[in-house]
Amino acid sequence: MRATIRDVAREAGVSIATVSRVMRDSEAVRPATRDKVRAAAAALEFVPSQLGRQLAERRHAANGIVFPDLSGPYYAEVVLGYESVAAELGRSVLILSTRGRDDADAAVQAMAERCDGLVILGRTVSDESVERLAARGANVVLVARPPVGGVDAVNAENRISAQALTQHLLDLGAHRLVFVGDPSTSPDVAERFAGVQEVSHDVELHHVDDLDETAGAHLVGDYLTRALPDAFVCANDELALGMLGRLRAAGVDIPGRVKVTGWDDVMAARYAGLTTVRQPMRALGSTAARLLDELIVGTRSTPRHEVLPTQLVIRTSTTLGKEHA
Amino acid sequence: MRATIRDVAREAGVSIATVSRVMRDSEAVRPATRDKVRAAAAALEFVPSQLGRQLAERRHAANGIVFPDLSGPYYAEVVLGYESVAAELGRSVLILSTRGRDDADAAVQAMAERCDGLVILGRTVSDESVERLAARGANVVLVARPPVGGVDAVNAENRISAQALTQHLLDLGAHRLVFVGDPSTSPDVAERFAGVQEVSHDVELHHVDDLDETAGAHLVGDYLTRALPDAFVCANDELALGMLGRLRAAGVDIPGRVKVTGWDDVMAARYAGLTTVRQPMRALGSTAARLLDELIVGTRSTPRHEVLPTQLVIRTSTTLGKEHA
DNA sequence: AGACTGCGTGTAACCGGTTTCATCACCAAC
DNA sequence: GTTGGTGATGAAACCGGTTACACGCAGTCT
């Protein structure tokens, strides 16, 4: 069995309180005593039990993060940004993926019992579940998800980037636009659509249920038989990549005949030459970690909602011009 | 303050032992008593403290996983596979990224104090650090990393896939091969190189230090001025993608003039049409989780080393033939 | 000399559960 | 009418730390 603080105390001929003080150099201890304790601890290879410490301090020194998935760079980057700040603050990070899990809400509630606070990414759990956490006094920060009640939230800007993206298309002479996606499913998509509409007067909404590649590839068929618009503005990259592949396979000139844009800037977008909007994923994670820390430490009581700027990334799916990288 | 087990005991007029029994329905409790306790717990909104429970049970009910990065699907997938099995086994997952951290070894040691066992991916920490963990009695499983001492390990098969890949190239008439990478840096790369050599007699080694895209793009320059081989067999996808991009930009016919292969099947490989070898990343993670569980539960004492099969994925960087998807 | 101050240290009470063991009520068997 | 067994329950020890508080001792000030 591993040595405990009492073993060290006996070995050093002092009380456990003194050992505790030495191990955390929290209070003044006479140098001679300190050295004696250090020697005893070293001799017994004493490593303080985190379990005992956590119970006594009534803190887990760990934060949680809930995400739907890690495939694709989106959430992975957020998690990394989060982890690096959490580590900096001396906290471990617990993860919970809700993918393919039907008891997500219960799992999140359980996780809340194992950490001092948690971050929830996207629409992984129900609003009701978030409210229950908040009511229970849990420290919660939402990321990439519409705010709920008085809970902290961090999101990426949508409207202004959508306007910039649309203006970019108009500048290139693309006037007849089709927005692909479902604004009713997510506030993010709704904001993007709104931003597009604010700049362009000629935008049609093509409603799709799934925002993935197959859906993108599939819907191209509808347009090949009738007239193509000047540009497809897709709600996300997967959709845009699916369309792009299918259009190119059909021999459609891109960006000459039709332009395509996405949203998120996933890694594949770079290889496919897809013009898109990049979200500051790392920053979303690190900002969430900082907000959460404020909640845990208790330095802030009023809820905050941060909106981080996004960035238009122009590639060959809209222009071959040399004026942009 | 939240209700404790003693509050519930008082409220229900029973002892804390009985409350404990009811909360975990571990032993027989008379139905009437059970209901009384349940009612009291509900009335007080009692949720057992995980901290207290963990200390009493002397277990964290959490496993750790250490990885270098999550960008790129490689490690992300492993983490997901790991998490899903861990969750199934009722354990939380603690993560630790060593990217950009100079105190990785210390961080891993600290993490080992906060979980019942951990998985280490790749060359994130020193062999010495792994041995220290093992000596300390920590439960450790290595993934995608050469085994150390008597520590469990899970790896992807290299040699046979390398042979299959090489045979595929020979079948296509590509005889003069160049293997790009450094077999001395990693046993994985060494095995891949060995596999290639076992099938082809005409393979040259092009030594590179960094296995990333810029290195790949850079080294193409050397070959454009002199003769190209029939195929470049790269140690990983990043390298291959870098070369592919540069070669295509230079107008070299692929796969006609030269063929290129990678290793890993990262997401971008699909878009770039790169022939490569796919590792069972999800399975690496889940297998590691199961091995780790055996160690923690204590059902096994002899170390194990699992080698999971890989899969050749043929794309347009080697053949345009219709015989393969 | 006596009171005061302050530092270093120990005692013991926590933190919130689990679990061993003793006890007690009840009933069947002899 | 004992004895023995069984099932439900409680008292208390325990997990391994932190920390409030008390105490002793030395040095300083009247």
TrEMBL record, chains A, B:
One of its GO terms (molecular function) is DNA binding. The keyword Transcription applies. It comes from Nocardioides endophyticus. InterPro entries: HTH_LacI, LacI/GalR-like_sensor, Lambda_DNA-bd_dom_sf, Peripla_BP_I. Keywords: DNA-binding, Transcription, Transcription regulation. Residues 3-57 form the HTH lacI-type domain. This is LacI family DNA-binding transcriptional regulator. The keyword DNA-binding applies. It comes from the Bacteria.
